[in-house]
Amino acid sequence: MPVRVLIADDHSVVRQGLRMFLALDPDLQVVGEAADGAEAVRLARTLHPDVVLMDLLMPGTDGITAIGEIRGAPPAPEVLALTSMLEDCAVVGAVRAGAIGYLLKDTQAEQLCSAIKGAARGEVQLAPELAARLVREARPSAGSEQLTARETDVLQAIALGLTNRQIRRRLQIGERTVKTHVSHLLAKLGLESRTQAALHAVRMGLVTSSEADQR
Question: What integer pLDDT is reported at residue 189 of this predicted model?
Fold first, then answer.
């Protein structure tokens, strides 16, 4: 089945351009378009996309607020922030709201298609030039030392961009067990998303920033 994509951007020409080149990939299917954050939230709940491409600067409900509302109502699609904004507060705000990735609008079409598919698999997607900003902002929490050895292994695998299925094979444990470990480590670290967990792993030294960028 193709990955179902919802495009949210207040510029119609951007939405049209995204729809046109995403349509060239048989593994992707654009199921809807939203012109503002509120419409994106409504369509995400009615169309059930796998991935939402979210601009951040939109009238009314902004993209960061919309990301939080979409991710806060399970079962929630993954959200990729796709924007021209380079401000640190926007990058960090999108990740804290629950975005699985943050890409710039000058990303090449092939890279964007690949990122959408990766996001649908639960893989963190970050533009390399933004990863360092996020790592600087990530703050290790007091719960780091409370992770079990297995939870630490799972955290490292998340930072390397592995999906739950890939982690299952890597650690030779059940996929349900992987999900349990992910939930527990996020709770212990006071984090809300796999993206935040990946950045935390870099700060802990479980992986280097270059290894995280290459996932």
Answer: 86
Q: Let me know whether 84 and 169 are in one domain.
A: no
Q: How many domains does the chain have?
A: 2
What CATH number does the domain containing 148 carry? 1.10.10.10
Q: Which of 99, 123, 93 is nearest to 212 (CA)?
A: 123
| Sheet with strand 78-83: strands edge to edge | 28-34, 3-8, 51-54, 78-83, 101-104, 125-126
Per-residue pLDDT tens for 38-76?
Answer: 999 999 999 999 999 999 988 889 999 999 999 988 888
Instruction: Say what the pTM is.
Output: 0.69
Q: What is the pLDDT of residues 132-147, one digit of tens each?
A: 566 555 544 445 558 8
**d(C-alpha 81, C-alpha 104), whole Å:** 8
**Residues spanned by the domain of 182:** 138-213
User: Cα separation of 151 and 32, whole Å?
Assistant: 38
Distance CA 107, CA 44 (A): 24
Whether 116 and 51 map to the same domain: the answer is yes
Tokens 């510029």 sit on residue = 11
Among 103, 120, 135, which residue terminates a domain? 135
